[in-house]
């Protein structure tokens, strides 16, 4: 899978994607990640990428002509057309279903906004999906882009190694995940639920299922709406 990122701050991407699972996926050629600087495609002497909003208002808006040129350049870097995703609080709320949909794409082109956002004509004519990682405003689309890259990478076959598979994770069947425990079995008088030490796999599976249901009912009843009571 190829992911291209358009950003004014390529340096923001150094670090989180250079460690652990994502790093390994890149080294193994499972994820082909490229970061591009939008400012390279500004044409004036001052390399301007933004301008004042028509109609007034505070802040600046990213120019459609600069973004169009940047996207056209990036598109030309690989044969697949790529699905263009713009990170914005006004987008579809990211969830497991959307992550899986995006992970099925051969190529994603993520566009990170800054200032007050981008000229709407860029969204209307070039963006395929607007995605939000939550109902809050950030200073840029870079962190949401990294969240998306991390979440999508987990679904690339082979990225999680043979061990875990995303299916067992939270949300896979719409429920929160069960509590986890490991050694020491006793710590400061705090013990581990006996069933987990029993080696009785059927009982353990039943206990974990019960925990997932109880947690979801208590913390995220919205996840259970529209589902007949999952026994
Ligand atoms: N909740 C989010 O996914 C999100 C995305 C982008 C953003 N800020 C960007 C959007 C255009 C200028 C800054 N804030 C929040």
Automatic annotation (TrEMBL):
Catalytic class of the enzyme: transferase
InterPro entries xrefs: Alpha/beta_knot_MTases, tRNA_m1G_MeTrfase_C_sf, tRNA_m1G_MeTrfase_TrmD, tRNA_m1G_MTases_N, tRNA_MeTrfase_TRMD/TRM10
Membrane in keyword set: no
E.C. designation(s): 2.1.1.228
Keywords per UniProt: Cytoplasm, Methyltransferase, S-adenosyl-L-methionine, Transferase, tRNA processing
Region feature Disordered, mapped onto this chain: 211-231
GO molecular function: tRNA (guanine(37)-N1)-methyltransferase activity
Residues that, per the record, bind S-adenosyl-L-methionine: 113, 133-138
Domain of life of the source: Bacteria
Record-level GO BP terms: methylation
Keyword Transferase found: yes
Catalytic activity: guanosine(37) in tRNA + S-adenosyl-L-methionine = N(1)-methylguanosine(37) in tRNA + S-adenosyl-L-homocysteine + H(+)
Domain tRNA methyltransferase TRMD/TRM10-type positions: 1-225
Pfam families assigned to the protein according to its UniProt record, in alphabetical order: tRNA_m1G_MT
Compartment(s) of residence: Cytoplasm
Signal peptide: none
Biased composition, class Basic and acidic residues, residue ranges: 221-231
Homology family: Belongs to the RNA methyltransferase TrmD family.
Entry function: Specifically methylates guanosine-37 in various tRNAs.
Quaternary organization: Homodimer.
Name the UniProt record assigns to this protein: tRNA (guanine-N(1)-)-methyltransferase
Organism: Tepidiforma flava
Gene that this polypeptide is encoded by: trmD
């Amino acid at each position: 899978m190829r992911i291209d990122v358009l950003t004014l701050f390529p340096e923001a991407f150094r670090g989180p994607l250079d460690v652990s699972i994502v790093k390994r996926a890149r080294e193994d050629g499972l994820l082909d990640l490229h970061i591009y600087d939008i400012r390279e495609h500004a044409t004036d002497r001052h390399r301007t990428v933004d301008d004042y909003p028509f109609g007034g208002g505070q802040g600046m808006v990213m120019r459609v002509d600069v973004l169009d040129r940047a996207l056209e350049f990036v598109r030309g870097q690989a044969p697949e057309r790529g699905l263009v995703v713009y990170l914005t609080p006004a987008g579809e709320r990211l969830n497991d279903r959307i992550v899986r949909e995006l992970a099925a794409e051969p190529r994603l082109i993520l566009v990170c906004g800054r200032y007050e956002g981008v000229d709407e004509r860029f969204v209307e004519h070039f963006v395929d999906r607007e995605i939000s990682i939550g109902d809050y405003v950030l200073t840029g689309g870079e962190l949401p882009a990294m969240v998306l890259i991390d979440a999508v990478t987990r679904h690339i076959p082979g990225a999680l190694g043979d061990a875990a598979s995303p299916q067992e994770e939270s949300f896979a069947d719409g429920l929160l995940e069960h509590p986890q425990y490991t050694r020491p079995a006793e710590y400061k008088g705090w013990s581990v639920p006996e069933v987990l030490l029993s080696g009785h796999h059927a009982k353990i599976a039943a206990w974990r299922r019960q925990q997932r249901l109880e947690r979801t009912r208590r913390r995220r009843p919205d996840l259970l709406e529209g589902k007949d009571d999952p026994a």
